[in-house]
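Protein in question quoted for reference:
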Amino acid sequence: MKVVGISASNMGTKTRIAMDYTMQVINEKYPDAITTLIDLAEVDVVFSDGRNYMDYEDDTKMVTETLMAADAIIIGTPIFQASIPATLKNIFDLLPENAFRDKVVSIIVTAGSSKHFLIADHQLKPILAYMKAQIVQTYVFIEDMDFYRKKIINDDVLFRIDRLVEDTMLMAEVQQKIREAQDSIYGF
């Protein structure tokens, strides 16, 4: 199973810290999973101009093709100005409408305050649903106070990330079995 994590900001460190921990949990608990972490701060992704995702080059092509090949995607995103970052929205714009069909997508949000708790529900989940993702309904919300010296210090947050990983992987396994059952109907 291919699992892709996205650290969806080109600045800051908290989302990357959360995603590093998440990918570590996957690698420890699911050693057979093939994992990739894409940090949008480390790649040069061009703005979407309407081309097919396969027509882009360099980092943009690598990011889009990696996401299209994934079975499960964990999106780590900060909230800036009560919204998802433009870097993440651009990734969605680069992909086709049905890009997440048969893919399980889960969410980790980092934010400066609890006032941004519903941004994932109001902005991110509708985009993912439009792109046909199988969305893990619960997500992990992490505030600034949960970090200290570049570590997550809130045990409840760590527990919730562990649970999100488990839910994501179980849902991806079920989705894979559904696809196999549907494919077996055709007999090829």
Q: What stands out?
A: Residues 2-186 form a domain with the Rossmann fold fold (CATH 3.40.50.360).
